Amino acid sequence: MKQSLIVAAFAASAVSALAGDVTGSVSLKGTPPPEKPITPLMADVNCGKASPGTVTTRHFVVGANNGLGNVFVYVKAGLEGKKSEVTAPKAVIDQLGCLYQPYVSGSVAGAAIEFRNSDAFLHNVNFMKSDAGNDTFNFAQGAGSKPIDKVFKNVEVMAKIQCNVHPWMFGYIGIVDNPFFAVTDKDGKFTIKGLPAGKYTLAFKHLKAGEVTQEVEVKDSGATVTAILEVK
Which pTM does this prediction carry? Predict the structure, then answer.
C-alpha cells in the first residue's frame, strides 16, 4: 500500500538545499521501580524454552549514564512548507521469544507495518482500541506463517498491540505524520537523519515517564540535543 500524501510531499522533487542529522540522548531523573520477572512467560511450556532464563518487564530500560531506552523521539512541529527526500524505513515487528520485538517502534501514518512470527507456535496481534480513529484488527499468526501488513491511517502516539494467546505480550508504535522520528537505544541515544534546516519542536515520549518537548534549530551541520524525563 502506498504511503500517505504527507509522506509523498516529503519525497517531492523540490528538496530543501540544507539538511542535517539530529543526534542526542535522553536520560532519566530519579530511581525507577525494579523490573518484574514475567513469571507466566517463564512457566509456559513453549515460551520458557524460547526465552530461557529470567525475562523481565521493559517499563524502564536504563543504561549508561542513566540513558533511557524506548523513548519515541519525533518532530512535533516546524515542518510546514519544508520538503525532503527522506522516507522512513518500513517498520517490522516480530513475535520472538514470546515478546514483541521491538517493544517500541515508529511508523508514518498511511505506511504499511509488517508483522512477523518467528516463534515455532501460535501468536496473535490485537489492536483493540484506537484513540485516533484507526481501524482496529485482530489476527492470528501460526508458526511459519507469512508476514502480514497493517496500516494505521491516522497519527497516534502510542498505538498499543497485544497478544491474547500470551497476555503479557505488549508492543507500542508511534504513528506520526512525517518520517523524522527515532527510538532511543538501551543507553538513551538516538539519531534523526536528514531533517531540513529550520527550527522545530521535538517531542520525547516514554510510556511511563510521559512526554517532554524541546526546541531545536537544525543547520546543515545538524544539531545535538539532550532531554531529561523523570520517574513518575
Answer: 0.90
